[in-house]
């Protein structure tokens, strides 16, 4: 997911340099949403890992 956020960010940068303001804004918005979804999933994964903990060996 982070990869897609970076891809859309690069698209936004290229579109902004070329003067496509609408496309750049849309791509930047998508990149921002994907980045925040990535952060939420990362936090959920870390919390689940900490809650689960390590099991004692059998």
TrEMBL record:
- GO terms under cellular component: plasma membrane
Lineage top rank: taxon: Bacteria
Q: Which UniProt keywords apply?
A: Cell membrane, Membrane, Transmembrane, Transmembrane helix
Q: Transmembrane residues, as ranges?
A: 29-51
Name of a matching Pfam family: DUF1328
Q: Where in the cell is it found?
A: Cell membrane
| Membrane topology summary | Single-pass membrane protein
Which coarse location class describes where this protein primarily resides?
A: membrane
List the NCBIfam families. Answer: PRK13682.1-1, PRK13682.1-3, PRK13682.1-4, PRK13682.2-4
Question: What family classification does the UniProt entry report for this protein?
Answer: Belongs to the UPF0391 family.
What HAMAP family does the database record attribute to this sequence? UPF0391
Identification of the protein by name: UPF0391 membrane protein FKG94_12345
- Specify the species: Exilibacterium tricleocarpae
